[in-house]
Amino acid sequence: MSLALVLPGRGSEGLAKRLKALDEQLDIQLWPDCPAPQTVAFAVTWQPPAGALAQFPNLKVVQSLGAGVDGLAAELPSGVTLCRTISPNLKTDMRDYVLLAILAEQRQWQATANDQTNQHWQQRHYRRGGCVGVMGLGELGGYVAGQLAGLGFSVKGWSRSPRQLPGIDCFSGEAALGEFLTGLDYLVCLLPLTPQTQGLMNSAFFAQLNSAPYLIHVGRGAQLDEQALLAALDGGQLRGACLDVFIQEPLPRQHPFWRHPTITVTPHNASITSGNDLARVVYQNYLAMRQGTALNHVVNSTLGY
Ligand code: NDP
Ligand code: OXD
Question: Where are the beta strands (DSSP E) in the chain?
Answer without folding.
Answer: 2-6, 28-30, 40-45, 61-64, 81-83, 131-135, 154-159, 168-172, 186-189, 214-217, 240-243, 263-265
